[in-house]
Amino acid sequence: MPLVCLFKMINPRKRFPTHIKRYRYECLMYLQEQLELGFNPQWLITYHYFTPEELLKALRETNNPYGIKDRVGFKSNSRLWNQVSRDKWIQKRREDLDWIIEDTNQIKNLELRDLYGVKRLNNKKKLDSVPPMMWFHEMGKVKHQYHTHQLLEGVLEEFNTKEILEDLFNNVFRYKRKCFSRWKKIDITPVFDPKGLYRYLQKETNINHLSFDPINSRIRHPENLNLI
Q1: pTM for this structure?
Q2: Are 211 and 204 in contact (CB under 8 A)?
Q3: Distance of alpha carbon 101 from alpha carbon 135, whole angstroms
Q4: Which of these, 103, 203, 114, lies nearest to 152 by C-alpha position?
């Protein structure tokens, strides 16, 4: 496919500087190579991270008819000064890609254990049976904090339906890791067009940010096809 046509497919109405096009294009080609090497994503999993605002509870201080001009206060579960310090620490984590990658690693280990039966990461035989998977981190339109997309190739047959995966991620996994948002549910979507999905997942990639997470992702080596 011609390079110019590919750029137009990424965003037909918006013009990007040449260096942004180049970095996004190179990353897109790298990911599409994984499709040629046999990666076949079946599920797109999207989750958000816990934020300090989720600890606040709204309290209605007045009781006017129909709620008109009601005064609303907020209450937290700990002392104010301790809460302020903790909130700043959590917010800093949500804006720092290094911390997001560390949280993703914890989520990955949980999935390896509960979805694929890998209880020990040094068990090479078990680990080699786990199919490829990819993670992508984005800030979204608001640019306030990161959220994450994950591509799963396949899971055990007993989990391989949308309903079961939604129940597993939202009712089990979400309570096993504190980094998951308490407000926003984890979204599970079947994948029908991997190439088009790659373009969507790479929309924020530029010279300063790589959406693709090469540290946690399991991909195939282009020469020997081994998972790395």
Answers
A1: 0.84
A2: yes
A3: 9
A4: 114
Helices (H) and strands (E) in the chain, counts: 7, 6
Q: How far apart are CA 129 and CA 225, in angstroms?
A: 13
Mind listing the pLDDT tens digit for each residue in 199-222? 999 999 988 899 999 999 999 999
CA atoms within 13 A of residue 209's CA, in its CB half-sphere: 17
Comparing C-alpha atoms, which of 52, 46, 51, 42 is closest to residue 185?
Answer: 46
If you count them, how many residues does the chain have? 228
Question: For residue 139, what are the contacts with CB-CB under 8 A and spacing of at least 6?
Answer: 145, 146, 147, 204, 209
- 21 CB neighbour count, 10 Å cutoff: 17
Closest CA to 49 of 158, 190, 178: 178
